[in-house]
Amino acid sequence: MYHLLYLLVCLNIGLFAAPEVLGQSTGLALTIGTLGIWRYSWALINFTRAKIYLGLVFPRRRKAAEARYREQKWRAHAFFLVTTYKIDPLITGPVYRSIFDAAARSEGGATIVASVVDASDVRLIKTIFSLSDASRSGLVSLAFDRIAGTGKRDALATSLRTISRLSPGRQDVILLVDGDTRVPGMSWRGSPRSSLIRPWVR
Q: N or C end of the chain, less CB within 10 A?
């Protein structure tokens, strides 16, 4: 849309420019026009490729991956890494409820590793988990990493090491979640070992 608007503006300027100005700037106009054609031809190529992939290639690969996953006996285990730091409890509550709901739907079970700083966050998250279907399923576990509030990079590094010690398999999946972002309703329909190297989440 913006590309089209830009081209229309340029065309409008060209149509209303004085003939003597255009005559004096033929070389410049030719150079700019060549660069513009080169740039927007690439944009057209990438746009076409994206449409072909989204409309033809991706649906076929997704269908094949889902069919292959249904034939397998094992199910991928989901690891959720959630970073929480000084977030309002009114936000933390819905966020973790959505995570626990998504974890409960994972057929291969799930592990939530919460990276937190304040003890109050630990208490709140434990309470939410105890009231969730995930805690009653027996297939979902909750772990905490208490850090000193030295930044998100340290939080991710610490919790990823925690997950690595749990020995996730090649068929398992790790999801990184911000503590202020709700996880949408998820339907696990694939696995990393499929031809798409992704778990299909809808």
A: N
Question: Token pair for residue 67?
Answer: 């069919």
- Residue-wise pLDDT for 25-78, tens only, equals 566 566 666 777 777 788 888 989 999 999 999 999 888 888 887 787 888 899
What are 180's two structure tokens? 């202020």
Q: Is 7 helix (H, G, I), strand (E, B) or coil?
A: helix
For the chain, the maximum distance between any two Cα atoms, rounded to a whole number of angstroms, is 81
Q: In Å, what is the CA distance from 165 to each residue of 89, 172, 198?
A: 30, 14, 22
Summarised one tens digit per residue, pLDDT across range 135-146 is 999 999 999 999
Give dist(CA 10, CA 7) in Å, integer.
Answer: 5
Structure tokens at 169: 């398999």
End-to-end, the C-alpha distance of the chain in Å comes to 28
Where residue 20 falls (left for φ over 0; alpha for ψ -120 to 50; beta otherwise) is alpha
Note the CATH number of domain 75-178: 3.90.550.10
Sequence letter at residue 32: I
Q: Are 99 and 183 in contact (CB under 8 A)?
A: yes
